[in-house]
Write a structure and sequence with these properties.
The complex is a heterodimer of chains A (711) and B (479). Chain A has helices at 5-22, 30-41, 60-65, 82-88, 102-113, 161-173, 183-195, 201-209, 215-225, 228-240, 259-270, 275-288, 293-298, 317-340, 359-368, 433-444, 451-465, 486-498, 503-511, 514-517, 524-529, 546-557, 608-612, 631-639, 641-657, 661-672, 679-692, 694-703, 705-708, and strands spanning 372-373, 388-389, 395-398, 406-410, 542-543, 572-576, 580-584, 709-710. Chain A is mainly alpha-helical. Chain A starts with a helix and ends with a strand. Helices cover 32% and strands 17% of the residues of chain B. In chain B, the strands form five sheets. In chain B, strands 1, 5, 6, 7, 8, 9, 12, 13 and 16 form a nine-stranded mixed beta sheet that branches. A three-stranded antiparallel beta sheet of chain B has the order 2-10-11, with no helix packed on it.
Chain lengths: 711, 479
Amino acid sequence: MTFLPIFRTYRLTLLALALFATAARADVSFEREVAPLLVARCLDCHSGEKPSGGLDLTTSTGLARGSKSGEVIERGDPASSLLVEAVAEGRMPPKKADRLARSEVALLERWVREGAKWPGGTLRPGSMTTDRRAGLDWWSLRPVVRPAVPMVANREQISGPIDTFIQAKLDAENIPAAPAADPRTLIRRMTFDLHGLPPTPVEIAAFVDDSSSDALERLVDRLLASPRYGERWARHWLDVVRFAESHGYEHDSLRPNAWRYRDYVIKSLNADLPFDRFTAEQLAGDVLAPGDLDALAATGFLVAGPFDEVGSKVTSALMRANLRQDELEDMLGVTSQAFLGLTLQCARCHNHKFDPLTQDDYYRFSAVLAGVRHGGPEADKTPAYVPRRMAPEPTRVLHRGDVQSPGKVVEPAALEALRTAAETFKLADSTDEGARRLALARWLTDARNPLTPRVIVNRLWQQHFGRGIVATPSDFGFNGARPTHPELLDWLAAELVEGGWRLKRIHRMILLSAAYRRSSRFDQSAANKDAENRWLWRASPRRLEAEELRDAVLAISGDLNPAMGGPGFALFDSKTNAGTLYRPVDRDGPEFRRRSIYRTVVRGTEAPLLATLDCPDASTTTPTRSVTTTPLQALGLWNDPFMHRQARAFAVRLEREAPDPARRVDLAYALTFGRLPGESERERVVAFARKNGWPTLARLLFNANEFLFID
Amino acid sequence: MRDEPECRADDAASALPRRHFLREAAGGLGSLALAYLLHREASAGGSPSLHHRAKATRVLQVFLTGGISQVDSFDYKPELVRRHGESMPGAEGIDTFNSKIGRLMKSPWTFRRHGQCGRYVSDLLPCLAGFVDDLTFIHSMVAKSANHGPAQLQMNTGFIRNGFPSMGSWISYGLGSMTDDLPGFVVLPDPRGIPAGGVANWSSAFLPPKHQGVALRGQGDPIPNLFGPEGVKPGSEAEARKFLGELNREHERSHPGFEQLGARIANYELAARMQMSVPGVLDLAGEGPATRALYGVDDPVCGPFARNCLMARRLLERDVRFVQVYQGGSAMKPRMNWDAHEDVIQNHTKEAAIMDRPVAALLRDMKSRGLLDDTLVIWTSEFGRTPFTEANATARGRDHNQLGFTSFLAGAGLKPGTSFGATDEFGHRAVENPVTLYDFHATILHLLGLDHERLSFYHNGINRRLTDVHGRVIKEILA
């Protein structure tokens, strides 16, 4: 090995410095100090079948064997050790940005000088959490342990265990919580939250006047029991699973029966189908309950995403093979994100850069789904858009994800990272296609799988509070957010599993908490400490979502058609030739006044009004919707023919139900804002309506911030 | 040799008055406003600001869907002429899209030298041929897919799959808006129809929806809901908006510390401004006869597309950040784009008659107004075509070819009258300095003052970029 003298000098200086700094300390700890460093900074390359430079740093044997250039350490003599030299000179790791800090170089140098002791066995690449990546000890991969409920002195705002966890944090941060919201605000918040619709004036009055001690519980139970609940909460799940009813890509063909999956989700939520069963049916409903149409429709989950119909038929075998890999990545990615909060799709070409997920994990998971795919001629004949099943071919690890570089065959199996936490599975290559998915379903819903319950309770929390305990609901890995209340998350996860995976039970606990019922009142000193409201000192106000707004407008105008289920309504024209082209159109009639969840969603076009209100592109999973404010949104709400039509209908309703103008304004306010106007406010509004007409007033109210935002 | 065709716009061009770009008259005001807007974006939406000095501040992209043939337009291959009718060497190793490989086919159009730079252009494009001294060609473009949908997505988003933000959205996100009166990213679809894949081509995907491309429509309101239904009285509207503002401000006073409320109030005012400004942009009545003649606005063949080109200039002049003009619709039958599977003469003659004159006119017009000084122009297809025929009944068509095709850039920050990269002797495969779409996108962002490795957005577990984990700025073509 040759190098320039200047490097030698630099290296020796470094070594001398390191020597000096560490002279008096005890021996370095291999487990605590050296192993994490090797795992974090060396094993990405120096491991596996073909370790870089021939140097395998996962075992003491590998270290002793050295590299292609010869031995890399001289025990007791760091100055003659190639390994120390390479890191000290900054030749290793090769990327400038990855070079070791001086303290890390010093650590390795000391370790070699002390004899390079290697107690213990094989190191796993990516196995330990460092400041750059998550290891097998990452928080979300650890078993759920039901935590003790903390003791708090301040019990003013404690309604149950949930509040205790939250109060403990608020006390620690010294932030006072806002008082409880008034009943009017609360019933509006809760009804929109659970139904995506406003409370009626009668419902508001009944709740405000109800002084019995269980008024709130009865409200929560009434809302959870209504079928409107499933229609609202299905939307959240459909966002996550990127559900749409056309293929996307060039031909973008319609999937006429895809709505059955949407109905399945609504029905399951309304029936409070245990979440483990809900999960399992989406992956393997056809195997779990053969002949059951609902369970079959559930598997629409796997093929809810886009599909390149043209690409699947091209002459080129290479292109078809690439496309198939893309298809598998889409299915596997959405499965791992939706249920596990893991971004397994990032491990297709290389081991995950940030989480302990290997390329082997990726291809084992992909082997589970190797027998399902989109489309096919028989797809049109099935009553629902579900995967086409076929005999799976052996799955090979693809070097750099390249279909032209196939490596070893892998069997369908669970993720290694969870092997100690949950019952694992590994199937023979000959295993039947359906049995593979069933094994995955069982593994995902194993009571000891720490991720499935954590991820779903966090999604519930996210929708109730506007932000999850983990703010990245589909990423519980290193790049995701850390939980603000980790104990509370585990407590909820434990409650879910122990309560038979019933989501309504968890909703109920959350809705009855003092934290949920707080006022949204702003407090400057609290905001100075926590502007984002991470510690939940108040309720976060929120804007209505696109579908909520459309449904609320229909409900208020009196036009809402409550018909549930079945084929959707299309707010587009389509023209099919070689492919299908869509054009948004405005349509009216009872069918088009149904709730927005029944709108047929295609990938090639959007509904302009809903799009301006952040209704997401169904081509990709949307665990958290954006909330944007644009002039196009203002134009849509002000000018869209739908808004004008419903404003006219609202005016007709007002005139019919309240002949007196003052009472009419009261009714309009009660319906849109959930309150009555003040004296002078009423007068000004009456005057405006007299001059400009009631339909204009109605449209104005539909554009008011007080209508669009929930306190 | 046939007679050299003439560009029918040439007469009109000489009659075109030389004027200067609107903003120059305003002196430093434009840049002050820009700084203000950039700052406002940065503080309001968390968009990153410039990474380095920008050469261009706005972008015009002309997207020819279907795949224009490089060997019939700008990539001259004498060897193809010589070997016409022979079989393609190494044909057994070539993966084609649609059909089996036929025979090598020379271009049915004659190539001639043009401009000071003496570049070869075929007779297919007589108007663009007259502008070559201002263009920077890349002959070694390489796409990942030979399939229209994914390839168009890759050109637009960097990925061959649905679900990623388009370049216009990235640029809008990265640089913010320069105008309050118009959207920052405007799309002008071909008057014959939108491209395959529809809105996915200009989707903001996981970026905030305000960065989504707004497609201007040919009929009805150009922007959805720009105006209310007919019969709405304007006076009453103004009063209603005023009263709404009052109610909203009262509500805002009782909700301190909640910025979205104020932002919504402001956006009703912006919306009113947009109602005033958009019709003005789209109304071509103010354009003089020379300009109309230059573009061919009244020509029965290229007129509808020419209107879009003229509109594009008006949008750029009014500080729209990214204007994307499509020439070509989807892969429907009869074909309405450059997808010349059956007969390249018939197909390309038809499409060139629509594209050539208006695009050349647009370039010329932008140049004369000084717009090219700070605008980047991109002219591209999703891929090119094979130098050999398809082995089908007609044997006059060319198949898809993602392995080597031609795009050109023009405007700010580039070396005009040059070319970069080359395909093999038949024009099939990029062999010299291949340019991936990652490189292409990285270079575009670079010219706009953005570092493609730093323009990122967290989604699905990683910080996503337009260039995925690839991309090299093609320094060789930069001035």
